[in-house]
UniProtKB/TrEMBL annotation:
Residues 6-50 form the Mos1 transposase HTH domain. InterPro entries: Mos1_HTH (IPR041426), Transposase-MT_Hybrid (IPR052709). This is Mos1 transposase HTH domain-containing protein. PANTHER family: MARINER MOS1 TRANSPOSASE-LIKE PROTEIN (PTHR46060:SF1). Pfam families: HTH_48.
Amino acid sequence: MSIEQRANIKFCFKLGKTFTETHQLMKQVYGDDCLSRGILHAWFTRFKEGRESLEDDPHVGQPKSVITPDTRPVERIRSTGPDSQCGVLSWCYAAFAVKNSSCSARISRASSEEGYVF
């Protein structure tokens, strides 16, 4: 998401623009690249409630992992085990930079070679 658009939302709020006016201005400036109405409203509300930062809040959940060139998908599947399909799929999407359907096929092929069944 664009920090620039967040800054402009904050700017409009500080100028005293309403959400509707801000949304119209943002659509005029960014066109099809404008944030969705819902996301724009969420940021407008945050600034209205006193938020100053334009940065994302910290995310809760599984931390990002580092994938090195020597990391093999099969080794990752072996270490996570067959009960961790969701984690393996997430890793696969990042490792192969491919669409979800391709990952499912790659995981099935790699896991069957190693004797895992999802």
